[in-house]
Specification:
Length: 330
C-alpha cells in the first residue's frame, strides 16, 4: 500500500527471516540499513551479500536491495522494504583502498571507521588512547566521499569522530547511538560531538539497544521520547532520526562474535564492564518492527508536530540518502 511518509531505520542486525520481513511490512518500514560485516574479511563479506541476494530472490514481495533514496520512494509506492548494506567495521576493505569502490558497487552505503577497537583507520570507543584518524583513514574517507559511501562513527572515540567530520567533504553519520548527557554509556556521544555533527550537516540515529538506554531494558517510552525532544532543542530536528540497533532473534553466540571477533580469547563485555554476557531484553514498547508506531505516538505526546514526527521517523534519513549515496559531484 502506497504511503506519503517514509519510515526509515538506519541500523538493524537481526537474525533475518520471513517472519521479520513480514513484521517490517506490518510496521510500515520502508528502508532498513542492515549490518553485513562486523569482523569479516572481504571474501566473507561477499558471502553475506550472497545470502542477502538469496533473500531478495526468495521474498521479492517483501524486500529488495536499496541503492539510493529513490529506492525508499519505490518501497513506499510498492509496499515493500528497501535493504541498504553497511559495515560496522572496516575489515572488509582489508588494507586495500580500491576495495572501497568495489564495496560501493556491491551495494554498501555505510562503513564505520571502527568498531570498539583501534582499526587501520581510526580509534574505537573502548581504547584508552584516541590517536585520531590514521594516514590510511584519511585516504579512505576521501575515497568514501568520492564514491558515495557514508562515513559512520557510531563506535568510534571522540577525537577520531571529530577529526572524521573535519576531514570528510560530505556530512557523516552516527547511525546508532544516544547522547551521553541522557545516559553515560561508553558508546553514547558527547554534546561536543553531537553539536559538531549537526553543524556539519550530519545525522544521528537514536538507538534502542538497551545498553544505550537510561535504565536499560526498563527504559520507558516517555523517557526515550523526552531525550529525543531534548536533542532536537540542542541540535535541530533536521539532524536526527532512528537507528534502532535492533538485534532481533539473534542467539547469544552472535553477541560474542560482535564483541570478540577473532582478536581476543577473553569475553569482551562490550558496553561497559557491568554488562552481562548475551543480548539484553528489549524494552516492552519496542520488541520488533511492528512497534515503530509506539515511537511516533510517543513523539507526539512530548510535543512534536506531525511534520517533525515525519522527519524524525524517516524524512531526514531520506534526504540524507538522496545527498549521500551518489558519486561526488553528481
Amino acid at each position: 500500500m502506497a504511503t506519503t511518509q517514509p519510515l526509515v531505520d538506519c541500523l538493524q542486525y537481526a537474525n533475518w527471516s520471513e517472519p521479520i520481513f513480514r513484521q517490517m511490512r506490518d510496521g510500515g518500514v520502508h528502508a532498513v540499513h542492515v549490518t553485513i560485516a562486523y569482523h569479516e574479511c572481504f571474501r566473507e563479506m561477499v558471502l553475506n551479500i550472497e545470502n542477502w541476494n538469496a533473500n531478495f530472490e526468495r521474498y521479492p514481495d517483501l524486500i529488495f536491495a536499496g541503492r539510493s533514496g529513490d529506492d525508499v520512494r519505490r518501497a513506499m509506492r510498492e509496499g515493500r522494504t528497501a535493504i541498504f548494506f553497511g559495515f560496522q567495521n572496516p575489515s572488509p576493505i582489508e588494507d586495500d583502498l580500491g576495495l572501497v569502490e568495489i564495496c560501493h558497487t556491491l551495494g554498501v552505503r555505510f562503513m564505520q571507521l571502527t568498531y570498539n577497537n583501534q582499526s587501520l583507520l581510526a580509534t574505537g570507543c573502548y581504547e584508552n588512547e584516541d590517536t585520531g584518524i590514521t594516514r590510511f583513514g584519511r585516504q579512505v574517507i576521501a575515497e568514501m566521499n568520492r564514491v558515495g559511501m557514508v562515513v559512520d562513527m557510531s563506535h568510534s572515540a571522540e577525537r577520531s569522530t571529530l577529526e572524521a567530520m573535519e576531514l570528510s567533504r560530505r556530512p557523516i553519520a552516527i547511525t546508532h547511538a544516544n547522547p551521553d548527557w541522557w545516559h553515560p554509556a561508553m558508546r553514547n556521544k558527547s554534546d561536543t560531538v553531537l553539536r559538531a555533527l549537526a553543524e556539519s550537516g550530519g545525522m544521528l540515529g537514536f538507538s534502542m539497544y538497551p545498553h544505550h538506554l537510561q535504565n536499560g531494558s526498563g527504559c520507558t517510552l516517555e523517557s526515550y521520547c523526552a531525550m529525543i525532544a531534548g536533542a532536537a532543542e540542542r541540535y535541530g530536528v533536521g539532524h536526527i532520526g532512528i537507528g534502532s540497533d535492533l538485534c532481533q532473534d539473534q542467539p547469544d553466540s552472535v553477541v560474542t562474535w560482535m564483541r570478540n571477533g577473532r582478536w581476543t580469547k577473553q569475553l569482551d563485555f562490550g558496553e561497559g564492564s557491568s554488562a552481562a554476557p548475551g543480548f539484553p531484553g528489549q524494552p516492552s514498547w519496542f520488541r520488533n518492527n511492528r512497534d515503530f508506531g509506539n515511537i511516533s505516538g510517543g513523539l507526539r505526546k512530548v510535543g512534536f508536530s506531525e511534520e517533525d514526527v515525519a522527519a524524525i521517523m524517516g524524512g531526514n534519513w531520506l534526504r540524507f540518502y538522496d545527498e549521500s549515496f551518489g558519486a561526488e559531484g553528481q
